[in-house]
Fold this protein.
Amino acid sequence: YKTQGEGAHKKLIEYLEKNYPEFKGHEISLIDDLRIIRNRIAYNGFFVTEDYPERKSKDIQAIIEKLKLIIYKKL
Protein backbone atom coordinates (compact mmCIF):
# COMPACT_ATOMS: atom_id res chain seq x y z
CA TYR A 1 0.00 0.00 0.00
CA LYS A 2 1.47 3.32 -1.06
CA THR A 3 0.22 6.88 -0.81
CA GLN A 4 1.67 10.20 -1.77
CA GLY A 5 0.65 13.79 -2.17
CA GLU A 6 -2.06 15.73 -0.42
CA GLY A 7 -4.06 13.66 2.04
CA ALA A 8 -1.50 10.81 2.09
CA HIS A 9 -1.12 10.74 5.87
CA LYS A 10 -4.88 10.70 6.37
CA LYS A 11 -5.19 7.78 3.94
CA LEU A 12 -2.46 5.88 5.79
CA ILE A 13 -4.34 6.32 9.06
CA GLU A 14 -7.55 5.11 7.41
CA TYR A 15 -5.65 2.09 6.06
CA LEU A 16 -4.30 1.35 9.53
CA GLU A 17 -7.80 1.55 11.02
CA LYS A 18 -9.30 -0.72 8.35
CA ASN A 19 -6.57 -3.36 8.20
CA TYR A 20 -5.22 -3.57 11.75
CA PRO A 21 -8.03 -4.21 14.23
CA GLU A 22 -5.53 -4.34 17.10
CA PHE A 23 -5.66 -0.53 17.04
CA LYS A 24 -8.63 0.66 19.05
CA GLY A 25 -10.69 3.71 18.19
CA HIS A 26 -9.01 5.93 20.77
CA GLU A 27 -5.58 5.02 19.35
CA ILE A 28 -6.63 5.84 15.79
CA SER A 29 -8.06 9.12 17.09
CA LEU A 30 -4.78 9.97 18.80
CA ILE A 31 -2.78 9.18 15.67
CA ASP A 32 -5.10 11.43 13.65
CA ASP A 33 -4.89 14.17 16.30
CA LEU A 34 -1.10 14.01 16.06
CA ARG A 35 -1.36 14.35 12.26
CA ILE A 36 -3.55 17.42 12.60
CA ILE A 37 -1.29 18.99 15.23
CA ARG A 38 1.79 18.36 13.07
CA ASN A 39 0.09 20.12 10.15
CA ARG A 40 -0.89 23.06 12.34
CA ILE A 41 2.66 23.35 13.65
CA ALA A 42 4.19 23.11 10.17
CA TYR A 43 1.80 25.40 8.33
CA ASN A 44 0.27 27.73 10.93
CA GLY A 45 3.00 28.18 13.51
CA PHE A 46 0.88 26.46 16.15
CA PHE A 47 2.42 25.56 19.51
CA VAL A 48 1.22 22.72 21.73
CA THR A 49 0.95 23.27 25.45
CA GLU A 50 4.09 22.44 27.38
CA ASP A 51 2.48 19.46 29.12
CA TYR A 52 0.96 17.90 25.97
CA PRO A 53 3.87 15.52 25.18
CA GLU A 54 4.00 14.36 28.79
CA ARG A 55 0.24 13.78 28.97
CA LYS A 56 0.21 11.76 25.75
CA SER A 57 3.54 9.98 26.19
CA LYS A 58 2.16 6.72 27.58
CA ASP A 59 -0.45 6.36 24.82
CA ILE A 60 2.02 7.30 22.09
CA GLN A 61 4.53 4.76 23.41
CA ALA A 62 1.85 2.04 23.39
CA ILE A 63 1.07 2.84 19.74
CA ILE A 64 4.77 2.72 18.85
CA GLU A 65 5.09 -0.70 20.50
CA LYS A 66 2.10 -2.02 18.52
CA LEU A 67 3.61 -0.72 15.29
CA LYS A 68 6.96 -2.35 16.13
CA LEU A 69 5.22 -5.68 16.78
CA ILE A 70 3.39 -5.50 13.45
CA ILE A 71 6.66 -4.80 11.64
CA TYR A 72 8.47 -7.56 13.52
CA LYS A 73 5.79 -10.11 12.53
CA LYS A 74 6.15 -9.13 8.87
CA LEU A 75 9.93 -9.64 8.81
User: Anything to note?
Assistant: Residues 8-74 form one domain. The CA atoms of residues 6 and 39 lie 12 Å apart. The chain has one domain: 8-74. The two ends are 16 Å apart (CA to CA).
